[in-house]
């Protein structure tokens, strides 16, 4: 079911990407996305066929690599500054966004840490301060690159992993509220982010400025009606929605294919999240549980934020819609994450369960003939 849902989103994403980019660079976006998709599928197959427990021993090395790559975005000419943000590394043939890798690496690192210190996760020092330093380093580097959406997503997913890992609410809640307070203050002090927040709070006063793209996305969704205006017949992609092939591609889906398609996408993401949590529940050991739950939160929350932005439920955060939006880095990491989920699921369905039940229940042995 998980593989079917991801394949359906990939297929729809390729079709809609070509439809959305017909007026710009023709098949260029589609070819680039297909290239990244092919690389991502290879990575997914490799991870699915591998033992996910190896990631536990690789966690520190992956963390170091992610930190170094996040630093490289500030070093020209390797790093690239686009629209005032430092988020990309120039690979020559393409651009790579290290923050996408950092999200997955943080989940792996926190999962490995929670397993290694399972008996002390209830304490403030071991359970919160040490793992929070891991998140804080990633968060600071991403914030310096002015990527507030990814920072919020990273902190939220990390919070969920730590809670499942055994950190107490009374220890975690004040720290998380403080972090979000700092992020909110930084966003408010930034003129561009403050304008986005004001446009979200009062869109009627910013239709010709900061709120223009969000308003045009709402018009696209509304004009699509139930069954859409037809594939390729979108009018809003003709220069009205600047990011119609990336963050706001859902609005083009709604305009061309209608409410049925948009609700179908929401339903597919719900199924993916349910599959992810089921895989986490059936994992053979705590590491598999924490890792699967973290990846599931990552995919589900990113989809929720993107859909919320396009429908004006949330202010603009600049996060792509998983498996559908144009963006090679995100697609590569998302497919790799799905491969890890499949690896956890594959081993979780084997006859004997692990001796350590992460939920504190009694260990169960399933007969070979069951």
Write a structural description.
The chain is mainly alpha-helical and 370 residues long. The chain has two domains: 1-49 and 190-350, no CATH class; 54-186, no CATH class. 65% of the residues lie in helices and 3% in strands. It has twelve helices and three strands. A three-stranded antiparallel sheet has the order 1-2-3, with helices on one face. A hairpin with a 4-residue loop joins β2 (85-90) and β3. The radius of gyration is 21 Å and the shape is globular.
Tell me the radius of gyration.
Answer: 21 Å
Structural class: mainly alpha
Number of strands: 3
Helical segment count: 12
Spatial ordering of strands, largest sheet: 1-2-3
- Shape type: globular
Largest sheet: 3 strands, antiparallel
Low-confidence region ranges:
351-370
Number of domains: 2
On the 0-100 scale, what is the average pLDDT?
A: 86
Q: Topology, please?
A:
Blueprint lengths: L1 H19 L7 H22 L4 H19 L6 E4 L2 E6 L4 E2 L1 H19 L7 H21 L3 H18 L3 H21 L1 H11 L10 H13 L24 H33 L4 H25 L17 H21 L22
